[in-house]
Automatic annotation (TrEMBL):
Name of encoding gene: mod
The protein's name in its UniProt record: Mod protein variable region
Amino acid sequence: DRDNFLNIVTVKTKIGGVSGSSEGKSLKDSTEFINVFSKNRERLFLNPVYQKTEVNEFIKNYEDSGKSWKYTQVLIDLGEKILLEEKDGFKYYHYPNAQMTSIVKFSQDQNLSKEIIYTEYSHKVYRTTNAQSSIRSKIIEDLYSIKNGIVSIEYIPQKGKNAGNLIEVFYNASNKDMFMFLSDMLIKEKNKYFYLQKVNTLWDDIQYNNLNKEGGYIDFKNGK
């Protein structure tokens, strides 16, 4: 049923051979495709699956690919926490004396390597984003007059990974850009820190040998 179609997944496979007659006339095929459907879109919930890479290895690969690593700031200390307002289940706070610095300066001041900072201090390492959301719009509208330090909003989300839990989200007071902490992207296993990336529609490291023997929910009689 087309109404239950979700995605097309591209799977990187072993490069197939090209017949002699096609040599030089076509590219070697190294992909296959999976059409993903749901039995019931209304009840569908996709459990997230993550790729794990040791964090400093991930950062090196990221920068080697020519991209600019965004988690370059450190929140040293929030300082005094001032309650500004409480309404409609939201609490607004101001941290006028918050101290922030760059990772480079923090590394120099504390005599720490970046590798140590990205792991042991990941809860202080952050980037900012101006991504639009209803919560950020509330911050911009309700706290427009505050331009110094950090502001925050404390509330209980109704959906998402933090649904039902009290959280506090931080923003630069000057432009209301939201803080994103590196620790939220990491998982610690056996004293190592791994960067998590959600699996998307390109599967380039999936083992699919004997995949036809997995699952058992749906029988593809002519599948392979």
